[in-house]
Specification:
806 residues, alpha+beta, six-stranded antiparallel beta sheet
Length: 806
């Protein structure tokens, strides 16, 4: 422990005792004798925690606390008020000026030490959570920029709660500020013609546990129609039950508009086929001669005199691409020889310049009165541009689909090794490269190959430390700036000889290198190798690899965060377990000396009553009362630790019978308070019977104890049955009384350990009972809360599941 604690108290002896206690467990202690000194020391030294006495000269603890809160973060500086004042007004004033916790004198050193540990741990945890939150927000902003650039967004549907969550950029694309928060509301925004199909695909994915993928139309809040391609994956819990459907949506409205425009272009071409812009032909089937209009020259470069000769049908078929010729000739003669009147076909036709044009050819067959073909009239349309547009559109669709598919696969795992393995495998499959590696920079200047996918027959480099003599700081700075390196052939590229020699040892002939960033820091390189031959890397390959490197960086950042969070959770669980064991052992160790104190006190009272005198007997009685309070505190601490250390298996419990037994055990208290306890018929549920007994005993005894003066306590116990949207049954067990009540603003505080709303002289107790109740309820996967008003009684509500597995 290296935390520094400031003690502010005008009592020198108290300061000395506190210093010795805190320094004995490893804390650094600084002291102030009044509030003014405490403020100055905080400004100079910034301690991690402040122990503050309420009553001090010059400036009391309340004013000092208020000023400390103005100087320090309201959440991060723990302030513990250590004072002899225990009245409600002082307690309320302490918390009003910003104290974190409150403890009264005389000080119980074990309690103080644990309270200090807990407050410091809470403060440190809060600082860590704030740091993690800032990091998470930064990563989220990076992911949002990538998705916005790709016209994409993420969504998640919680199957149990029927809650849908959309990323901000998807809301901006489709929602105009908001998107539906339930599945049915979302389906109502889907186009009516697509709605059943979307519902069916979702149900099928949940049933099969596979992936979900569909194209559909969806209306925005403004009424605009969007085309969406949606990909999702069912996530299951540890028992294999589907709990969530998570995925990516892409707005493909522009792509669909392009396809629509393409169809419109085809219709325009069909209309224009009747005009002279097309190569119109007239085929005399009896003479086997084809006449062409003048467009045969403007489209294909052949003069009319060259092609309009008798018996020229062979010229036309000879200019069809050899791969298309058999099909086209067969189809056209099948139409002529059959009963068809129309024919059309697409094929490649040789231009005069030696290049092929993509052709849409259509013809009408003229038949005589006997149905015999005599003539065929048609037109050839040059659709080369349309074909190229289709090819480019297909490439764009492929790029978008590949990017979405690979991004989803990379994001499916939060394990670093799986992310790296998936990345190199998918990139190699996509690019058909001989080798794909991910290299990470080492602190010693070496390069480490952390993952690889390689074609058999080429050397494997996975796990190797690599030293490139040419890879100096200049190259590293270029990659830090986002530079992408592309080499088509190492023997013709303008690179240093040492770099050629370096690549040769790994059989590299061409490579494509893209940097990987985590939080804007250069982490490593994603590299594609072509070993068998030179290779020209296309723009779309380079762009896609850059986008994938961004996804890899985001996935790695998320995986690292998960590792950190997992480690923190494990450390927290270990700390909690050690704390429980400590409380249990410490409480046991305190039992024996406490028994001796009580036993010797009883002997003194019996055997030395006259010798002690009136004052001695008074001291002895005070000692006995303190011993009983200490015994009660130890018993409650043991009960608190036993909730987890001595838990029993869950069995079916008859709550009505169990409650009656508890009330029977409290018969003496009921008679003393002249109280009444009314028990309605209660349900059966799976639970730990001993813990449920303790839960009911604590709540009912509190209801009897905290009654109004001159008003006999009345306690009623009943229940409500609840059914969630998923059909899960829950029971609300309600303990209602007519006692003193409390201010509703303290409802969360009363369930904390050692928290009391009244002084011990008013109502006895240790302040642990309700903390035990909350721990029991949480072990049963339930909740506990209360509703109350001062002077109007209280209602404690315990919600428990009906069928809780053991």
């Amino acid at each position: 422990m290296n935390s520094q604690i400031l003690i502010a108290d005008d009592d020198v002896l108290i300061r000395l005792q506190l210093r010795e206690l805190l320094e004995s467990v490893g804390y650094t202690v600084i002291e102030a004798s009044n509030g003014v000194e405490a403020l100055k020391m905080y400004q100079d030294l910034h301690p991690d925690m402040v122990l503050l006495d309420a009553m001090m000269p010059e400036m009391d603890g309340f004013e000092c606390c208020r000023r400390l809160r103005e100087l320090a973060s309201k959440d991060e500086l723990p302030i513990l008020m250590v004072t002899a004042l225990y009245d409600v007004e002082s307690v309320e004033k302490a918390f009003a000026v910003g104290t974190t916790d409150y403890i009264t004198k005389p000080i119980q050193w074990l309690v103080l030490r644990q309270r200090v540990q807990r407050l410091l741990h809470g403060s440190q945890t809060l600082k860590q959570l704030k740091t993690q939150t800032r990091h998470a927000e930064y990563r989220e902003s990076q992911l949002r920029m990538v998705l916005e650039a790709a016209q994409m967004g993420t969504w998640e549907w919680d199957i149990n709660s029927d809650r849908m969550v959309w990323s901000d950029n998807l809301i901006a694309l489709l929602g105009d500020g908001e998107l539906p928060d339930t599945l049915e509301a979302f389906l109502m925004q889907v186009h009516p013609q697509d709605r059943d199909s979307v519902r069916h695909q979702i149900q099928a994915a949940i049933a099969s546990g596979g992936e979900y993928e569909i194209e559909f139309r969806m209306f925005s809040q403004k009424g605009d129609l969007h085309w969406i391609v949606s990909k999702g994956l069912v996530i299951r819990d540890g028992e294999g039950k589907p709990i969530c459907l998570s995925g990516v949506d892409m707005d493909i409205t522009e792509r669909k508009l392009a396809e629509s425009q393409l169809r419109l272009s085809e219709e325009r071409f069909q209309i224009l086929a009747k005009a002279t812009n097309d190569a119109v032909w007239d085929w005399n089937l009896q003479t086997n001669t084809i006449w062409w209009n003048e467009s045969v020259e403007s489209l294909f470069g052949y003069g009319q005199a060259e092609v309009n000769v008798i018996g020229n049908e062979q010229w036309w078929s000879d200019h069809i691409h050899p791969q298309d010729r058999p099909r086209v000739v067969k189809d056209i003669f099948s139409a002529i020889d059959g009963n068809q009147n129309f024919w059309y076909g697409e094929y490649r036709f040789l231009r005069a310049n030696g290049k092929y044009a993509d052709i849409l050819d259509r013809g009408y067959i003229v038949r005589d009165e006997n149905g015999q073909p005599v003539r065929m009239i048609g037109a050839m349309m040059d659709i080369t541009d349309r074909k190229q547009a289709q090819i480019e559109l297909q490439r764009q669709n492929l790029r978008s689909q590949l990017f979405a598919d690979i991004s989803l696969k990379i994001r499916q795992s939060l394990q670093i090794e799986e992310i790296l393995q998936t990345s190199v495998t998918e990139v190699q499959n996509l690019l058909q490269a001989d080798r794909v590696v991910i290299i990470r920079f080492r602190s010693n200047g070496m390069l480490k190959v952390v993952q690889e996918a390689v074609v058999p027959g080429f050397v494997a480099v996975w796990g190797q430390d690599i030293f490139d003599p040419c890879f100096d700081e200049e190259y590293i700075n270029k990659y830090r700036q986002g530079h992408i390196s592309s080499i088509e052939d190492i023997y013709t590229a303008d690179i240093q000889p040492c770099h050629v020699e370096f690549l040769q040892q790994f059989q590299v002939r061409a490579n494509l290198v893209v940097p990987i960033f985590i939080h804007n820091q250069l982490w490593g390189l994603l590299i594609a190798h072509q070993c068998s031959s030179p290779r020209t890397w296309t723009d779309w390959e380079t762009q896609l690899l850059r986008q994938l490197s961004d996804q890899i960086g985001i996935a790695l950042a998320q995986a690292k965060l998960l590792e950190q969070e997992t480690k923190q959770r494990q450390e927290l669980a270990r700390s909690n377990e050690e704390l429980q064991n400590f409380a249990f052992i410490a409480s046991h160790d305190l039992q024996e000396p406490l028994r001796k104190i009580k036993a010797f006190g009883d002997r003194l009272r019996i055997n030395s009553q006259e010798a002690l005198g009136e004052q001695g007997l008074d001291y002895l009685e005070r000692m006995r009362n303190a011993t009983e309070r200490m015994q009660a505190l130890i018993d409650d601490l043991l009960s608190l630790s036993r909730v987890t250390t001595r838990a029993q298996p869950f069995i079916e419990v008859n709550l009505t019978q169990l409650t009656q037994e508890v009330v029977s055990d409290l018969e003496v208290l009921i008679q003393q308070t002249n109280g009444t306890v009314e028990i309605d018929q209660l349900p059966n549920l799976n639970a730990d019977p001993s813990q449920i007994r303790q839960l009911l005993q604590n709540l009912i005894s509190n209801a009897l104890k905290f009654h109004r003066p001159e008003v006999p306590p009345y306690v009623k116990i009943y229940y409500h049955q609840l059914t969630t949207g998923e059909g899960i049954e829950e029971y609300q067990i309600i303990i209602e009384d007519n006692g003193i009540g409390f201010d509703q603003k303290y409802v969360d505080r009363i369930f904390n350990i050692f928290q009391r709303l009244h002084g011990r002289h008013e109502y006895e107790g240790t302040g642990i009972g309700l903390a035990i109740c909350r721990k029991i309820v949480e072990r049963h996967q339930g909740t506990i809360t209360a509703e109350s008003q001062p002077g109007k009684g209280s209602k404690f509500i315990v919600t428990l599941p009906r069928n809780l597995p053991n």
